[in-house]
């Protein structure tokens, strides 16, 4: 029974050619007794949640439809010279119209959870004030389609697409944006929490603050000084904290609230006690203005000392808000950093990686699989977090469609297998990671890189919107079905 079901599912997913693919036979998989999972090497705990992640502006398209207001990414991507090839998210994966088919793909993969984000300017076209009912209806219908497919939705409220109307008033430079975000978050939670049980406030505060307001390579494309950037970071973590409180006030009881942050992952150079101790110190300091203040309700002494007169202005009450208790912590884990022990004041030094360090297709994406051990482990050690998720992990690859119509992304499979092996190592030592969301289901609009960098496990032909599951899709479906790698 199980065997024929698997075959049918895989035939649907990969077409008739599936049988001819040089992958491990399904007979061998079906022969493995299901409940031996817990004792198999590299098994994940029973009930571990496997998912994929996407973000509104990167997949939805339909930028001008059904009353959606402009976001800073519409403005930025339509500004000459800001994105690769002048690419925009106007159409992207056309997920706004094709979500039913894409959710079917998720179901075929065996996903039990899915992380998506809400476009703020679909709900409040001007950031605050009047509501666009069509936007609310879209997310209700989309979430219902997930639930019908047996997939639990995890909702991110801010994945970088700030309404342009708020940027016109200073964006995150303006403290009012933090309150506007909380109002929007509370409103969405009031409308969706009958269907969605997990909400994440922000995606990667570090990224949108530093790339958008310091480096100028993401929207809104500003290059501000370090005092301004420190204040913006403070407004952003404050927005997170206010949103946590607003969601708790407005959502159905039982709603769980967290965030999806991308901490700097400070792997010990080698796994000896002195370097591991340095990794703990480094993790707290390198993330002082983001995860550390959120978890501890204070900026570290070294962070404030280093900024001196440029330190952010804050009140004790704001710090309490920022540290509002969370039900879970989500982390996006990609590239590693490495640290070593040092006798100086900080107790650690960040190591500059050799230029030979292996990378994926994105120049920044160095391959450090042990990051998926150390990131959750350090967070658990430092702050005793009881529930964690890997809210993103994945890789870009120079995918090509082969003559036989398949995409053999062996490098992405290598990357995923090795990162997941280290996640299993963490979980097997008692680190409470409950689920993993692979970035991404589909190739999509990769921000400033436009469509030039592919992160999907499903290939998208952007000219036709045709979807082709890659080899990594089959790898992931296999991991999910066996709930492990062994
Ligand atoms: C995540 O960011 C995002 O949440 C997601 O939207 C994105 O698609 C995905 O990863 C893949 O990139 O251009 O050299 O200055 C990951 C963290 C931090 C990675 C900033 C890209 C820019 C490096 N990102 N980084 S560079």
TrEMBL record:
<keyword id="KW-0732">Signal</keyword>
<dbReference type="GO" id="GO:0008422">
    <property type="term" value="F:beta-glucosidase activity"/>
</dbReference>
<keyword id="KW-0326">Glycosidase</keyword>
<feature type="binding site">
    <location>
        <position position="334"/>
    </location>
    <ligand>
        <name>substrate</name>
    </ligand>
</feature>
<dbReference type="GO" id="GO:0005829">
    <property type="term" value="C:cytosol"/>
</dbReference>
<protein>
    <recommendedName>
        <fullName>Beta-glucosidase</fullName>
        <ecNumber>3.2.1.21</ecNumber>
    </recommendedName>
</protein>
<keyword id="KW-0136">Cellulose degradation</keyword>
<dbReference type="InterPro" id="IPR017736">
    <property type="entry name" value="Glyco_hydro_1_beta-glucosidase"/>
</dbReference>
<feature type="binding site">
    <location>
        <position position="203"/>
    </location>
    <ligand>
        <name>substrate</name>
    </ligand>
</feature>
<dbReference type="GO" id="GO:0030245">
    <property type="term" value="P:cellulose catabolic process"/>
</dbReference>
<dbReference type="InterPro" id="IPR017853">
    <property type="entry name" value="GH"/>
</dbReference>
<dbReference type="InterPro" id="IPR006311">
    <property type="entry name" value="TAT_signal"/>
</dbReference>
<keyword id="KW-0624">Polysaccharide degradation</keyword>
<feature type="binding site">
    <location>
        <position position="58"/>
    </location>
    <ligand>
        <name>substrate</name>
    </ligand>
</feature>
<dbReference type="InterPro" id="IPR001360">
    <property type="entry name" value="Glyco_hydro_1"/>
</dbReference>
<keyword id="KW-0119">Carbohydrate metabolism</keyword>
<feature type="binding site">
    <location>
        <position position="439"/>
    </location>
    <ligand>
        <name>substrate</name>
    </ligand>
</feature>
<comment type="similarity">
    <text>Belongs to the glycosyl hydrolase 1 family.</text>
</comment>
<dbReference type="Pfam" id="PF00232">
    <property type="entry name" value="Glyco_hydro_1"/>
</dbReference>
<keyword id="KW-0378">Hydrolase</keyword>
<feature type="active site" description="Nucleophile">
    <location>
        <position position="392"/>
    </location>
</feature>
<feature type="active site" description="Proton donor">
    <location>
        <position position="204"/>
    </location>
</feature>
<dbReference type="InterPro" id="IPR033132">
    <property type="entry name" value="GH_1_N_CS"/>
</dbReference>
<feature type="binding site">
    <location>
        <begin position="446"/>
        <end position="447"/>
    </location>
    <ligand>
        <name>substrate</name>
    </ligand>
</feature>
<feature type="binding site">
    <location>
        <position position="159"/>
    </location>
    <ligand>
        <name>substrate</name>
    </ligand>
</feature>
<dbReference type="InterPro" id="IPR018120">
    <property type="entry name" value="Glyco_hydro_1_AS"/>
</dbReference>
<feature type="signal peptide">
    <location>
        <begin position="1"/>
        <end position="30"/>
    </location>
</feature>
């Amino acid at each position: 029974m199980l065997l024929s079901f698997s075959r049918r599912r895989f035939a649907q997913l990969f077409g008739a050619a599936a049988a001819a693919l040089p992958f491990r036979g399904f007979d061998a998989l079906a022969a493995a007794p299901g409940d031996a999972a817990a004792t198999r090497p590299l098994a994940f705990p029973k009930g571990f949640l496997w998912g994929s992640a996407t973000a509104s502006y990167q997949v939805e398209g339909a930028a001008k439809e059904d009353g959606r207001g402009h976001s800073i990414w519409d403005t930025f991507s339509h500004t000459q010279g800001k994105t690769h090839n002048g690419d925009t998210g106007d159409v992207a994966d056309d997920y706004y119209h094709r979500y039913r088919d894409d959710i079917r793909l998720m179901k075929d993969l065996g996903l039990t959870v899915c992380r998506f984000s809400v476009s703020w300017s679909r709900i409040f076209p001007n950031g605050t004030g009047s509501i666009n009912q069509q936007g609310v209806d879209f997310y209700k219908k989309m979430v219902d389609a997930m639930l019908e497919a047996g997939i639990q939705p995890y909702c991110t409220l801010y994945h970088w697409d700030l309404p342009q109307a708020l940027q016109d008033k200073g964006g995150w430079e303006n403290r009012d944006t933090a309150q506007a975000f909380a109002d929007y978050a509370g409103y969405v939670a009031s409308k969706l929490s009958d269907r969605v049980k997990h909400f994440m406030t922000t995606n990667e505060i570090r990224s949108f603050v530093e790339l958008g307001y310091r480096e100028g390579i993401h929207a809104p494309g500003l290059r501000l000084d370090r005092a301004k950037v420190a204040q913006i970071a403070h407004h952003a973590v404050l927005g997170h904290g206010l949103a946590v409180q607003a969601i708790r006030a407005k959502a159905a009881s039982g709603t769980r609230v967290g965030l999806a942050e991308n901490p700097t992952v400070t792997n010990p150079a080698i796994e000896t006690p002195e370097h591991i101790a340095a990794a703990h110190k480094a993790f707290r300091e390198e993330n002082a203005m983001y995860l550390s203040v959120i978890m501890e309700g204070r900026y570290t002494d070294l962070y404030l000392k280093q900024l001196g007169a440029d330190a952010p202005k804050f009140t004790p009450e704001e710090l309490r808000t920022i540290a509002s208790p969370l039900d879970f912590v989500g982390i996006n884990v990609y590239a590693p950093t490495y640290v070593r022990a040092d006798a100086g004041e900080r107790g650690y030094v960040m190591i500059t990686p050799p230029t030979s360090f292996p990378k994926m297709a994105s120049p920044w994406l160095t391959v450090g699989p042990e990051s998926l051990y150390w990131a959750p482990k350090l967070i658990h050690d430092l702050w005793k977090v009881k529930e964690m998720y890997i809210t993103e992990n994945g890789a870009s690859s120079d995918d090509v469609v082969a003559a036989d119509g398949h995409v053999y992304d062996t490098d992405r499979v290598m990357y995923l297998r090795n990162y997941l092996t280290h996640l299993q190592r963490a979980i097997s030592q008692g680190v409470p990671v409950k689920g993993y969301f692979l970035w991404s289901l589909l190739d999509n609009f990769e921000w400033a890189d436009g469509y030039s960098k592919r992160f999907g496990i499903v290939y998208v032909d952007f000219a036709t919107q045709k979807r082709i599951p890659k080899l990594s899709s089959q790898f992931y479906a296999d991991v999910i079905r066996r709930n492990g790698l062994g």
